[in-house]
Amino acid sequence: MPTPAAELHYNVAVGLYSQGRIEESIAAYSRAIAADPDFGLAYNNRGYAEFTRGRYAEALADLDRAVRLNPDDAVAHSNRGAVLGALQRYDEALASLTQAIALNPRTAQVFSDRAGIYLGLGDIAKAKADLDRALTLDPNCAAAHYHIGGVHAEAGELLRAYPSFARAVQLGLPAAREAVDRTLKQLYLQALEDHSMQRAIESFIDAQSEQDFRALADEHPYVLLPEFYESLLGEKYRKIEGVHERALILQELARESGMLQ
Q1: Which range marks the domain in which residue 224 is found?
Q2: For position 74, which CATH number holds?
Q3: What is the structure's pLDDT at 11?
Q4: Given 28, 63, 143, 235, which residue has the most CB atoms within 10 angstroms?
Q5: Does 183 fall in a domain?
Q6: Nearest-angstrom CA–CA distance, 176 and 242
Q7: Alpha carbon 134 to chain centroid distance?
Q8: CA 110 from chain center: how many Å?
Q9: Better-scored residue on pLDDT, 5 or 239
Q10: Which among 79, 105, 131 is the end of a domain?
Q11: CA–CA separation, 7 vs 130, rounded Å?
Q12: Is residue 25 within 8 Å of 49, Cβ to Cβ?
């Protein structure tokens, strides 16, 4: 058990972290550790906070200490694995994440993190197995959806990658936004190269309802790029009845998706 003074500082640190006051929380965890140098949870939490600030060396030192003090702490092993992954020390990261899973096989995020390491190593089969497990445990695991998008993108399956990246954004993973934008732009360029842009435009012009528009937006997600409106409203189509109104619906879909502000 930590000393009363250490526990007090620890609780203050937890509260500060929950408020997004990361640097202040790190200082409070440091005070907890000063009051009790064997306070494993404080090392774990400070290490993770340092990790979120990109200070990997400090984070790893804290998490190394955390797992030495509490060898059965699955969270500390998981956090250590995440830091090692960020440092591209993949073999060590796999060992830590696998240990975390052995201690607690019910946490979706750890399976997702290990899948990310497997993807970095090019082991797609093991990555997919971990991602399946992650989504079985938690269908709303944002990181798992993000990594599934990465699997499809790596295979050149952009139309399958896009909804997974978009789902990750919807679930609150800001890092996935860049992947969404990149995938849409790749789809747009691909559509220009294979002439499917023309077919997409004609399909949208023939659509009869907003429901049809939404279905087509799933089939041709690159239409959510602003460049598409220029194509849709080109001279050839401006005389077609209702085309401007249809473009406005596309614009609203783009705003909903986050492509336009």
Answers
A1: 195-257
A2: 1.25.40.10
A3: 97
A4: 63
A5: no
A6: 35
A7: 13
A8: 13
A9: 5
A10: 105
A11: 36
A12: yes
Average pLDDT of the residues in 149-157: 93
Q: For the chain, how long is the longest CA-to-CA vector?
A: 78
Give a yes or no: residue 216 inside a domain.
yes
Tokens for 160, please give them.
Answer: 């399958």
Q: Where does the pLDDT of residue 1 fall: very low under 50, low under 70, confident under 90, or very high at 90 and above?
A: confident
Which of 73-87, 168-182, 200-214, 239-253 is the least confident region? 239-253
Matching residue, tokens 């019910």: 106
Closest to 186 in 3D by CA, of 216, 227, 127: 227
Region of 258 please: left (phi>0), alpha (psi -120 to 50) or beta: left
pLDDT, tens digit, for every residue of 66-89? 999 999 999 999 999 999 999 999
User: Rounded distance, CA 17 to CA 131, Å?
Assistant: 29
Structure tokens at 154: 């790596």
Question: Do 101 and 199 reside in the same domain of the chain?
Answer: no
Interval 10-40: pLDDT, tens: 999 999 999 999 999 999 999 999 999 999 9
Q: Is the pLDDT of residue 122 over 70?
A: yes
Q: With b meaning 16 or more CB within 10 Å and e meaning fewer, what string describes 60-96?
A: bbbbebbbebbeebbbbbbbbbbbbbeeebbebbbeb
Please classify residue 208 by burial: count the beta carbons closer than 10 Å to its beta carbon, then call 0-12 exposed, 13-18 middle and 19+ buried.
Answer: exposed
Could you tell me if residue 218 is inside a domain? yes
What's the chain's length in residues?
Answer: 261
Q: What is the pTM of this model?
A: 0.84
Question: How many structural domains comprise the chain?
Answer: 2
Query: Pick from 206, 150, 208: which is nearest to 183 by CA?
Result: 150
Give the domain-ending residue among 105, 121, 146: 105
In a domain, 131, yes or no: no
What's the pLDDT at 152? 94
